Design the sequence.
């Protein structure tokens, strides 16, 4: 090692010791969280990643098969159907954002009863997803559910729609129910951010003759950008792992048309007992989720840094 490199290494070690001694209490507080993450998240994840390279029947012993599980998935037509369903299902995040943004802007303009209306909006998010899924499964049941009965009775439909036998219609129902259940989360974040926008900015916009659309684009939207990026990132991660309502409404069918990757993982693990393939699906789902979220996190960091 050259003398210059040795000096650089000593400087780095000295700086590291100084930082550690100055912030030892903060590191002590972080330690339990770090231990939790390593023991309960990263070690099981590493084990799952390893198991994705094994043939592991449920209750049996794993056998190393290398890339065989991944090669099987990428040569299996239903996997691409599931992949397409996952990409379409991810649009629920955009729908949730649209509904939440409109609702938050509308509530901001209300002078009386704001708390009551906000509370009503939050009802769907406070009810467990299994309960809302059961309610919608009954409401949308083609023969016994009241929705199609009323639409037929009022002459809006000639006959009931058996959406469960059509892949596109089933996916549409899942998108609708998921959006209805989870949009209040984004509504909460956007509403809180809206309340923090200084009124002076709106007064200045009005003074310069800006209309509603110009005020939204030039004042409101830039101020909401960070909140929207955070809400989008969190909801994408959560939406991609949702299975309860999909299983309730369609059970992943017809065929694999609504088997998003999280449901496909469930079907391999608990329907067929092929744990190795299930782990391989999980790894692919993780890579897709990171890919989606990375774009928003990078944009959030750029927004936080501000104009250079």
Sequence:
């Amino acid at each position: 090692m050259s003398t210059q490199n040795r000096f650089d290494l000593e400087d780095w070690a000295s700086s590291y010791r100084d930082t550690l001694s100055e912030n030892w209490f903060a590191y002590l507080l972080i330690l339990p969280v770090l231990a939790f993450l390593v023991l309960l998240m990263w070690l099981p994840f590493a084990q799952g990643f390893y198991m994705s390279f094994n043939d592991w029947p449920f209750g049996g012993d794993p056998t190393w098969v290398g890339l065989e599980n991944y090669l099987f998935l990428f040569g299996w037509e239903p996997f691409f159907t599931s992949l397409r369903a996952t990409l379409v299902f991810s649009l629920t995040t955009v729908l949730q954002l649209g509904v939440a943004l409109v609702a938050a802007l509308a509530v901001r303009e209300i002078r009386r009863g704001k708390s009551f209306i906000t509370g009503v909006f939050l009802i769907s998010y406070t009810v467990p997803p299994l309960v809302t899924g059961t309610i919608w499964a009954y409401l949308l049941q083609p023969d016994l559910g009241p929705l199609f009965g009323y639409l037929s009775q009022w002459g809006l439909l000639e006959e009931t729609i058996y959406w469960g036998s059509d892949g596109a219609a089933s996916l549409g129902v899942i998108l609708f129910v998921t959006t209805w259940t989870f949009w209040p989360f984004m509504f909460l974040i956007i509403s809180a951010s809206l309340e923090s926008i200084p009124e002076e900015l709106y007064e200045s916009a009005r003074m310069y003759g800006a209309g509603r659309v110009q005020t939204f684009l030039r004042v409101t939207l830039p101020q909401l950008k960070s909140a929207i990026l955070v809400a989008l990132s969190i909801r994408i991660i959560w939406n991609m792992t949702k299975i309860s309502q999909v299983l309730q409404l369609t059970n992943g069918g017809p065929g694999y048309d609504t088997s998003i990757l999280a449901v496909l993982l469930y079907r391999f693990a608990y329907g067929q007992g092929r744990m190795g393939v299930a782990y391989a699906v999980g790894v692919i789902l993780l890579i897709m989720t990171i890919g989606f979220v990375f774009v928003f996190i990078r944009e959030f960091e750029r927004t936080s840094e501000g104009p250079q």
